[in-house]
């Protein structure tokens, strides 16, 4: 045969035309003889050799005969030879035979599935008709589910290569339905589970151990990657197919892998994929379980896309939606869990970058992920510890709660028993903490305290778990307890020179005990002196009145024991405060000013909290050892100011304010401590203390009102409060006093509500722990009560935080308090009740806590000059609990809150019956009315915050929601425990809806509506209830609400705006609703006296008209934008319906736009210019295409529509002239865009006429400027500008023929030209 490069004899003979047929015939006859013979001694495969002679012939004499012989041979050959012959076909046959061979092969494909791969491989290489390929592809698609995994790559390649732009979406949709790789890879599941064990130290060389299935899968995805890289239509169709999948169950692991692959392959589609993913996550279609399965099954495929997956996670973490942020954090977690060490390092690096970003939500999420990774895989995290340690250089920019998390991560790494190599981290931690504790900069000292106490908790907790295992470890635990003790003692000694630092140490230590993170031995060693030190510092004999040069007479007040015994105790508050503050003008003692240990009254409340938790932990919740502190009096002076208030000096007033703050904080901690006591006597005492708090707050408000620039003693000792709050409050209190922007009654611990317009409230947000929009819902109060109410709200950060357990007091109805005589016999019984002021105090605090915890920390960038943690000031204890814990606690209160809600409802029902609905009727207790109204509002606010919590979308929280809804529905009627969710939602909706009759204020009404909407959002069948929302909203808009100040309504514009939007969004016909308000309500208002409202809509007054006008214009524009333009192919009925709808919309627009002739204030004109342009733009885009093909059949309707609209656009032109002549820049900035839009409209009308063969009906005229009343603007400038405009617009403006007949030049603005064309239609006919 010669060398490999020379032709064989057979090949040479086949090149001779006359011999070729005979030789081919002989070869095919000989070939079957070798079918079943083994290879000869030379390892030559004779059948394959014979077939190879037929390849690449210069000329085939009889192609058809050769094709027939080959196909016959294929039908009888063994399978391995069939493969060889089929794959050789493109090299044997000429182009003319491709069609015939293709048909034969497709038939063979149906008969023999084992030949699928070679046949499809060949079909891809033959020149075949696209329609034929389409049939073959469909044939393959039908058999896809039964094909072997190793054949899939070739098959998928054929399918993807045969896709066209027209059928891409259809084919991909079918492909993703039939291709379920999660089940194809079942053998590798075992390997995937082993990966979890191996991932700690698995190197990238693990590919050598991959199973054949995994190799096939990797090959398959390589084929897909290649296809989507070079075919844009395939990637777009794949994303679209996934986007169109609606059901949760239809989403597969394959979908997620494809999104990741396209994201990493096509940079142009990244934004599109991110949008699709966000929508899927929000709707709950892609959940954690699906993501986990994706990583566990296809980790080898995803490993190559590590950088793209991390980039996607980073993008998701920048989102505003908590569910999307959570998904981004899961991407980081699973990437770390399943990928190799290089990827793990990238994950940690990305998380550290997030932590140093300055974005609060990002920092929190990244720290949470780091903490989870440390617990999940400590040895892998140990390799990346150096990155985490680097965060210690950026402590300035993170909040105290984040500092706790960071030190928790580092401490867990440093003191993990599994890591022997962690000693260097321990050394670094000790160095950093000692450095911070000894810093002269106060902020760093406090960071050191937080870090040291957090580290002590981790050190103790680790040993606690292992103590019981062996004696050796128990001994080690003793050694560890010694380390913990020495660390805490170090903190104590470094902080004792500063009251603030000491107080923070006590609070941090108390939190450690409360979370049960401290080993009992360590607690015993550190805590044995706490009780003694507290007594020495703050407790004295009540019978010995302190002597000294005090500015006020000292008295033992607020004792709860009626008969004081000789050995009674008292809290030594006033003398301590006097000795520290009075001589120093009320300024706090700084560490530099005192070289000796101080007993500061500032530490009273934090030290007591520490003492209480220590006793509670050591005695299993029993507080008998310290229950004397609940009863004992305090050394104060007469606090009620009376007439002496004005005569006091500023220093004395400041002293009294400090005394009140400290007393209030003491009582707050007392209530925190004893709120869960079960005996009636103790409950009574706690309620009395609660009553004292409310009384003292009223007294404090009086002092604060006349004490400007006063800085209270701190109540919370986190870093942020020390930095900014005192100074901010100083400025605010002065501003409040001066401007009188007041909103609230009673303690302003309350909560956020809708947004605020006032400048003063924007300033307040710097010291306010919540955004500045909280104040608007509380403007129903009057007089002096209102003027003092906001004061305490701004001092919120200086009050001690109430624990979440305190709200168990809401369970109290009537509690009997026994009074014992000297011989311990019951002398009398006094009934102590949770009164309205105390209820309001608790509800305000609870609503504020829920707002802080359950409203997601929107990932907003911190504005310049704003304090980073201002939102969380006063919530440091609360922030250490998860949202789930808080929700679980509050759900225990749903029943008592329902009781209170029903009682308040009954109160207002009875009140309405007695006074016929008149608020200030005879015998009405106005103060009680306002308190009850505020309680009503707070309860609705709490329910709203609770049910609006985004966490209910997670499956693990569904039971909580179910139980709460069961409580609500059972108030209406007792039902079975196993009711479906829809039934519970429906009953809960009806239960809450029943309260609408007794709603006392507009603010409550808005919260009730929002609460009902939140309930409806969770229901799948909410369409019928949508009408109920609209009906209820209309009732509230048509109700007469009690007014506030005589000059001002009690309804804020923001709340009215919100309710009106809800009404129009939920009503059946927005256009009819707008027509009713603008066509009925507004004329009533115009015809009524100055201060009288509309009779149909009492909320519509001259003050609130601009709100109604803005909402109606905005909703009208939003509605018409949703109308599809339609096409000429649509049915006649659809055209008529759309034309009718546009007629109604233009009529509404006309009614609204004409109101500016009566209401011509700046805000109204501004709304008119803004939304007028948007409406005209919508008319251009949505309505003009409809008129194009409706003109011939509905000529009169189109003319009528354009005639009405022409008058409106003329008025818009007049408004432009009005803006210019008044030179109001706020209005004139809208004029150029509006004029451009009006000109476009004229051109568009002309185009419509041309399309309908009416172009000759369009002719031109001059333009004049007029004001709102239609009077011509006579100034020379405006005349010149008019002339200019008319010249500029010559090409596109028309005028009415009727007007020119009267001898006048009609003013044809850019927007009135369609009328001209309308009139011209009549002329042309």
TrEMBL record:
Classify the main location.
nucleus
Protein name listed in UniProt: FA complementation group D2
Which parts of the sequence are annotated with region: Disordered?
A: 743-780, 1270-1325
Q: Is Ubl conjugation one of the keywords?
A: yes
Name the family the entry cites: Belongs to the Fanconi anemia protein FANCD2 family.
Alphabetical UniProt keywords: Isopeptide bond, Nucleus, Ubl conjugation
InterPro entries for this protein: FANCD2
